[in-house]
Amino acid sequence: MLKHVILTRFLKNKLAAIGFCLLSIFVLAAIFAPFLSSYGRDSIDLMNIESQPSLKHLFGTDELGRDVFTRLLYGGRISLGIAVSATVLQLLIGVTLGCISGFYGGWIDNAIMRIVDTIMCFPFFVIAITVAALAGPSVWNVILIIGLLQWTGVSRIVRAEILSIKQSEFIEAARAMGLNSFEIIINHLLPNTLSPVIVNATLAVAQGILMEAGLSFLGLGVKQPEPSWGNILSAAQSMRVLQYEWWLWIPAGVLVFLSVLSINFVGDGLRDSLDPKMNI
C-alpha cells in the first residue's frame, strides 16, 4: 500500500516522470551502445575527418575521423558509471560515519564532525584538480576523488536523522530486548533515514556527472581514447571548434545538461513522494 502511494505521488509529478523517462533513455542508450551504432568506439575514418553531420555520420566526426554519435553513446557509459559509482562510495562512507556519529555521540561525534567540517572548508575543484594532477587522469581516480571529497553532506543528513530518533520509545524497547548497537543501527535507525538518503543520492549522481565533465574537460579526468561526455566537451577549448565545428561539443553539452536536469527532476519527485505530509 505504501509503495503504491509513493508511486502514485511520483507519477503525478509530471516533471519527475519526464525526467525519469529521459534518464531511462540515456541509460538504455549507453547499455546498448554496440547495437545502436554500426561503428566501433575508436574506429577511424581518414576520409571523413571533422566532417559535418550526415546520413553516414549522424553527429559528424572528430579530428581523428571517429564517429561522434558512437563516442557519445559509449561516453554515456563512462560518465553515468562514474557518477553512480562515486555516489555509492559517498553513501558507504557518509552513511557509515553518520550512523556512528549520531548514535554514539560524545567524543566520537565531535571527532567525525570536525573531520567533516575540515573537508567542507576546502573548495572541491581546487583539491580535486590538485589530487587529479598528482594521481593522473583515469576513470578510477575520478571516482575516488569525487567519492572521497563529497560524502560529508550525506553524513550530516544521516547524523541529524539519527539524533532525532535515537531517543524514541521503539529504540528504548529494542535496547530492553537486548539488541546490541549494531543491530539497533541496522534494523531500526538506518531504515528510518532512507528517504532523505535516497533523495540526496539522486542529486549526488547529478553532481557526479558535472564533476566528471569538469575534470575531464580540463584533461584531468577520463583519458582519451576512452570517451566520456566531459572529454568530448574538451574539444570546445579550440576557438575554431567553437565557431565552426559545433557538432564536436554541442551534443555532449546537451547530454550533460539534460541528464543533470532529468536527475534533479527525479530527485525533486522522490522528495515530494517520500514526504508523509504530502497529499496524493
Automatic annotation (TrEMBL):
Top-level division of the source organism's lineage: Bacteria
Keyword Metal-binding annotated: no
Keyword terms, alphabetized: Cell membrane, Membrane, Transmembrane, Transmembrane helix, Transport
UniProt cross-references to InterPro entries, sorted A to Z:
BP-dependent_transpt_permease, MetI-like, MetI-like_sf, Oligopeptide_permease_AppC, OppC_N
- Is Transport one of the keywords UniProt gives this record? yes
Q: What is its main location?
A: membrane
Q: Name one Pfam family in it.
A: OppC_N
Specify the ABC transmembrane type-1 domain's residue ranges.
Answer: 76-267
- How does this chain sit within the bilayer? Multi-pass membrane protein
Please list every transmembrane segment annotated in the UniProt record, as residue ranges: 15-36, 78-103, 246-267
Where does the protein end up? Answer: Cell membrane
Enumerate the NCBIfam families for this protein: Opp4C (NF045476)
Q: Which family does it belong to?
A: Belongs to the binding-protein-dependent transport system permease family.
Protein name listed in UniProt: Oligopeptide ABC transporter permease
Species of the source: Candidatus Clostridium helianthi
Gene that this polypeptide is encoded by: opp4C
